[in-house]
Amino acid sequence: MFIRTAFDVLETVEVTDYLRADTHLYALTRCCLSVPIATALERYVAFRNFLAYCKSLVNNMKELTVGKRVKLEDVEVLLNDSVRIHDQSYVEDVINSLVIGGRDKLQIISDFDRTLTKQHVDGKPTLSSFCIFSQCSQLPTGYKEQDAALCRHYRPIEIDPHISREEKAKHMVNWYQEAEKLLSGFDFRIEELEQVIRKEGVELREGSNRMLESLRTADVPVLVFSAGLGDSVSAVLRYHNALLPNVHIISNYLQFNGLQVNGFQGDIIHSFNKNQHAVEKSDYFKVLACRKNVLLLGDELGDAGMADGVQNPDSVLKIGFLYDRVEDRLEEFQNHFDIVLIDDQTMDVVNGILDLIL
């Protein structure tokens, strides 16, 4: 009778509420048995041991069901010298949430310039998507020099940690408006972009093809969200056989009237309004409403807001690639990205995390 009643107690409490069950069992032992206290305590201790065994059994079953919890120290790529993690407990929780959600709940949102592509090769900066365009021979005389002058003026503002995001956004609007004025009234054949890519050797990060192919195999959607030139973004991915069926691009595309260039299509996307455009382009995210876990990749502070259009996300892990002015920008990067990778020109960390999820 006593044993049956004890099991009834176990069945009436939550599995995780062992302390409450333990209290009930002690009271039950005292009330149900007309024996000396010492004997009651012996039986109470015996049932406590039994309860501990039940707890151990339940935990073992949980591990068999959902897999062992991932510890950061067990993920070899996160031990690299290039890795900075400000809140290790939080990152560990998010990674475990992504692992439990698996491929069916996952989507990828990535910047392009110096995120999917390398930031430098042996110290030489790689060409951005706009720079690829500026290398084309069809452009009017003086275009390259004028475009470079705009970059020299506005790029330092874009990465200055002492200028507010609001002030930077104003300057970015001016930059793109002035750049758009240069993109008008001349003929341009888009095929030349691939010729420049082949000649200049624009490289994706090591491991990018592996990452994108594994995501295609797992049927995980990838959004390439770029403030660069979409025509160049598409050309680079196509050149590297990385423009796969699961890859969608949101970027600034050239507007054509026949062969003549007439600025950009639609509203301009710059590095500090990506979060705004994420909401405006939310039809893309509505299609992926069931994919509430996000792995986000970027190399600018504005990239951290690219997942703002995801509706009611469960878990978002933000990885930032940092190269320019590391000492000045590291603290701000760590305030916006969960994992910061310093001068890491590979996708090793991303692939290491995806290996756990897919």
UniProtKB/TrEMBL annotation:
Q: Give the transmembrane ranges.
A: none
What is the enzyme's class at the highest EC level? hydrolase
Q: In the UniProt record, which is one GO cellular component term?
A: cytoplasm
UniProt main location, coarse: cytoplasm
Q: Transport: is it a keyword of this entry?
A: no
**Catalysed transformations (reactions):** a ribonucleoside 5'-phosphate + H2O = a ribonucleoside + phosphate
Q: Enumerate the GO terms in the molecular function aspect.
A: 5'-nucleotidase activity; magnesium ion binding; nucleotide binding
Q: Which Pfam families does its entry note?
A: UMPH-1
Record key words, sorted: Cytoplasm, Hydrolase, Magnesium, Metal-binding, Nucleotide metabolism, Nucleotide-binding
Q: Which family does it belong to?
A: Belongs to the pyrimidine 5'-nucleotidase family.
Q: What is this protein called?
A: 5'-nucleotidase
- Biological source species: Coptotermes formosanus (Formosan subterranean termite)
